[in-house]
Amino acid sequence: MHARVRLLAALAVVSGCSLQEASNRVDSTAAVTQKPSSRAWNPNTWQAPTVDSTPDDPFEIAVYRGLAILTHTRDSLPGYVGGNLNCTSCHLDEGRRVNAAPLVGAFARYPKYMDRSGAVVPIEDRVNYCFTRSLAGSKLPPDSREMQDIVAYLAFISTGVPTGEHVPGEGLAKMPALTGDSSKGRLLFVDNCVRCHGNNGAGLGPIPALWGPQSFSIGASMARQERAASFIRHNMPFDRPGTLTDQQAYDVAAYITAMPRPDSPGKETDWPNGGTPPDAPYDTKGHKAFRPPKVLPRTNNPAAAIVAAPASVSRTNK
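^ that's the sequence the OP posted. Answer follows.
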């Protein structure tokens, strides 16, 4: 055993690497006989790592850039954002807050099948769904520097999550089956939301618009009453989250989702295999729109707002 240690040290000197680098190299012989780690994956104790504010290697720099893009999306990529929202307008606390569509752990779940697309999609497509639907903008080239910076951030804050595993509080919490009253929602909106989002829902300063041409599109998950109610119930009002009841959250959501918002080109092909959620506010295969709002035309390139499902290169569809 001592001879082996001396040999590793000698190799480290000859190759000019550090002992730490030498110890990190994979010993293929040891890898075959090595026993599995006794430390099992525990989603309840796992924590997303903190982004280094003074990055000192190319990957850390990419992660830091990705976080900056998600936090200041409309300023970083004005040609790809149609409204006044940033990614972190919905993915709160840099994508770390539970029950606010957190981004932590998401990287480990892609590629995945999405019933809305009817296909297995990579994480780049999922990012582009946010750009085209929630930001009412245009898709980023998957191989662009900016897209890969975003993916680097998603990968970093998922460090340690095994492929296919889940973390507590992911997505938006499922709500009870209730129906919102938009007239009551208007009163609740005045009492709880106007001071930040304005009476016309256009947002004040950095606060995002909730309807109108600068808001999320009809194809965004937040345009569905139940999804909006979940976000409101657990995260709003911003200074008093959790103070509204389930029914009040539904009422506010009913009021907001009834308002005009940008179109989502290609939305009619969503859920191609059926199974459209009952509160989807637009027509799809076998589904009639639930309380559809007025749809505003997209001012940017409509074709750039469509993220097509991955297509085969070995056959051509007639």
